[in-house]
UniProtKB/TrEMBL annotation:
The keyword Ligase does not apply. Belongs to the TGF-beta family. GO terms for biological process: cartilage development; cell differentiation; ossification; positive regulation of cell differentiation; positive regulation of multicellular organismal process. Residues 302-422 form the TGF-beta family profile domain. Its main location: secreted. The keyword Zinc-finger does not apply. Pfam families: TGF_beta (PF00019), TGFb_propeptide (PF00688). One of its GO terms (molecular function) is growth factor activity. This is Bone morphogenetic protein 2b.
Amino acid sequence: MVAVVRCLMVLLLAQVLLEGATGLIPEVGRRKYSESGKQTPEQSESFLNEFELRLLNMFGLRRRPTPSKQAVVPQYMVDLYRMHSANGDHSTKRPKSMGKHAERAASKANTIRSFHHEESMEALASLKGKTTQQFYFNLTSIPEDELITSAELRIYRDQVMGATSPNNNSRNSSISNSTIAGGSHRINIYEMFGVPAAQSGEPLARLLDTRLVQDSLSRWESFDVSPAVSQWTSGKGHNHGFVVEVVHPEEGEIDGGHAKRRSRHVRVSRSLHQDQDSWPQARPLLVTYGHDGRGDSVLHTREKRQAALRKQRRKHQHKASCKRHALYVDFSDVGWNEWIVAPPGYHAFYCHGECPFPLADHLNSTNHAIVQTLVNSVNSNIPRACCVPTDLSPISLLYLDEYEKVILKNYQDMVVEGCGCR
Ligand SMILES: *[C@@H]1O[C@H](CO)[C@@H](O)[C@H](O)[C@H]1NC(C)=O
Ligand SMILES: *[C@@H]1O[C@H](CO)[C@@H](O)[C@H](O)[C@H]1NC(C)=O
Ligand SMILES: *[C@@H]1O[C@H](CO)[C@@H](O)[C@H](O)[C@H]1NC(C)=O
Ligand SMILES: *[C@@H]1O[C@H](CO)[C@@H](O)[C@H](O)[C@H]1NC(C)=O
Ligand SMILES: *[C@@H]1O[C@H](CO)[C@@H](O)[C@H](O)[C@H]1NC(C)=O
């Protein structure tokens, strides 16, 4: 009975998809769909709304996200997406600036989220020999059932002017020689435990990560902030934000006139950033790695699909009998290209065909399906077994949620890898 109901549902879905002609219906396909004359426009409208709602539900979203034109997709997220979902393209390497801990975390996570800090809540302080900046990242959009296993804070820093040319000694009399000979500075990342006591001015904080960096390089630095973020998201701690502290040992004694130079060490604030156009891509980024307990990691998507594709190529196909057919779901047909950054669509495939008596071995049937087909051959009141997916694989989606946060997530059972009679 259950099998029959499932069979009917699958047939209905296949019918819906096929009548959509160009793939998955709404928006563009909507007109064609209602012209097919099988349903009134009102009926198909409400059906499509229901259909979309169910799909969004499946994605864990309450409504269709409608990101603004200003929504920024960080290049790092695009790189992670390429790395994880490249279709058989092994040349895609991990992003150069990706931390080792982040790489390990990504291999276990099925959801990777990125956050920009709340600029209205930043606080900048320039003390003698160091610059500190407070950041707050609003993480409330992370669902409760998502376990955060790792988090990295990524900060872009610019090379210090003059640090690249140790031999250029036109200014060597006024500045200490370590700056000229390619010095270094230290970046400390702290978790804040509350607002600073008014008198002392020093916020309560614990050190999360630290690094000594060369002045002469422009690059992203990745800091491990997992302990703080996993406490915040599991409800064991309150999110008061981070402090990023940049220490310039050599400049401690030299005062005045170097504030501008110092500020170029780390582009931590829009106000300090010189090229405003590049700010959206150069601003700090918090990346969380988590798992909601459903299915494989983002990294395994690619491996599983490749294995399944190889298997598929080996299998030889029969004509009218149950088999896999091409079905490309184009997200722009559904109007979803506004919030799904990548891929533009994907090969979902579907199962269709006869499950004739007697069931052949390659139809991957169950004993039950064989019995049902047997009964059907003598009693046509009992339907034949159904042609259904027997093996499904996940895909990775890079998308913007309703708060314009960029998320890379692995979705289970999105692609038919094999069909069978059940
Ligand atoms: C965080 O974001 C949520 C959802 O947008 C909002 O309701 C909340 O007020 C924000 N919290 C802070 C501290 O900005
Ligand atoms: C030395 O510095 C000057 C200006 O600061 C620059 O024009 C010149 O190209 C530099 N020379 C080398 C060899 O880097
Ligand atoms: C740079 O410093 C070295 C050693 O302190 C000195 O010999 C040299 O003359 C200086 N060069 C200039 C251009 O001031
Ligand atoms: C300049 O560099 C030399 C060797 O690299 C070092 O011994 C000396 O202490 C440095 N001077 C200053 C003022 O930092
Ligand atoms: C038949 O389906 C099962 C369950 O999806 C799968 O484990 C098995 O590999 C399939 N066999 C063939 C020959 O495709």
